[in-house]
TrEMBL record:
Pfam assignment, any one: Abhydrolase_1
Gene Ontology cellular-component annotations: membrane
Protein name as catalogued: Pimeloyl-ACP methyl ester carboxylesterase
Domain AB hydrolase-1: start-end pairs: 64-293
Example of a GO biological process term: acylglycerol catabolic process
Cross-referenced PANTHER family: MONOACYLGLYCEROL LIPASE (PTHR43798), MONOACYLGLYCEROL LIPASE ABHD6 (PTHR43798:SF5)
Lineage: Bacteria, Pseudomonadati, Pseudomonadota, Gammaproteobacteria, Pseudomonadales
Gene Ontology molecular functions: monoacylglycerol lipase activity
Length: 308
């Protein structure tokens, strides 16, 4: 028994050492673990000339939820959130074109172009109607899609969406107006910690080895993200004129301490929507599904249940 326990201890130490020394392996292992917990699998498909990556799982014959991440993010943002939804729905979390593992097509990444790409992706997936949820930039795309294709959207959920001229300007836009560097783009290793502090009130725990690896990956994408952000500004499409066209019941969910996009957006959006619901989470920043995955998922599920 002693030999068995000693051997097991040596094995565990060896595994821990490998994961610490090889953060890419550590990240892959954590991803796989979270996928399995959520009941999701990694898939990909070709849409025209694009290779699109996504997670899919849950009830094969259930109503479909389509989840859209924000700027400089990817489908991994939805893993812990999806765990609380796959027992009752078919869940699809996309890497939008230009992000994550999906292809980076030439041309624009403005929300109008991405909304049309989304239509093509849903066609390729055979999704005629879906409950659509987007965070930040993904929320901007989701809202525009819902206005353009009202018959394809059963419900709409917007988690701190972009696209609104807010009564109170967010800290992000105040920084940009002053000519400061964009805190959402990582150019130096120390910028990654700044990003975490800016997006979250309480950042999720990350081992230092993994944090350094994620910082390196983000730095490698800095030029691309700068270009995308510039396109989002130069080819900006305001949501205010199109919100009245949205027919689907719409949940507006925001973290009260959001520094990226101010919670006062709700005051603009609510009177323009036909069927709005509102949830504001105390002590939460810009990414509720990451900072409080269970709580935000239960709020979303309560909204979905109210539609039945």
């Amino acid at each position: 028994m002693k030999k068995l326990l000693s051997g097991l201890l040596v094995l565990l130490i060896g595994i821990a050492t490998i994961l610490y020394c090889f953060p890419a392996t550590q990240l892959a292992s954590l991803r796989l673990f979270e996928q399995q917990r959520a009941g999701l699998s990694h898939q990909q498909l070709h849409v025209g000339d694009l290779n699109i990556h996504y997670y899919e799982g849950g009830l094969a014959n259930g109503e479909t939820l389509v989840l859209l991440h924000g700027f400089a993010a990817d489908k991994d943002n939805w893993l812990r959130f999806s765990r609380h939804l796959t027992d009752g729905y078919r869940v699809i979390a996309l890497d939008l074109p230009g992000f994550g593992e999906s292809d980076r097509p030439p041309g624009s990444y403005d929300v109008g172009t991405q909304a049309e790409r989304l239509a093509n992706i849903l066609d390729a997936l055979g999704v005629e109607q879906a409950h659509l949820l987007g965070n930040s930039m993904g929320g901007h795309i989701a809202a525009l899609f819902a206005a353009r294709y009202p018959d394809r959207v059963r419900s709409l959920a917007l988690f701190a969406n972009a696209g609104i001229d807010t009564p109170n300007k967010s800290e992000l836009f105040k920084l940009i107006e002053r000519g400061a560097s964009n805190p959402l783009v990582v150019r130096r290793p120390e910028d990654f910690q700044r990003l975490l502090q800016f997006v979250f009130v309480e950042p999720p725990y990350l081992p230092e080895s993994l944090k350094g690896y994620l910082a390196e990956r983000a730095m490698a994408n800095a030029t691309h993200y700068d270009q995308v952000f510039q396109q989002l500004i130069e080819r900006y499409i305001p949501l205010e004129p199109v919100l009245p066209k949205i027919q689907a019941p719409t949940l507006l969910l925001w973290g009260k301490q959001d520094r990226v996009l101010d919670v006062s957006s709700i005051d603009v959006m609510r009177p323009l929507l036909q069927k709005p619901s509102v949830a504001i989470m105390e002590g939460v920043g810009h990414a509720p599904m990451l900072e409080r995955p269970e709580e935000s998922a239960l709020l979303y599920r309560h909204f979905l249940d109210s539609l039945k």
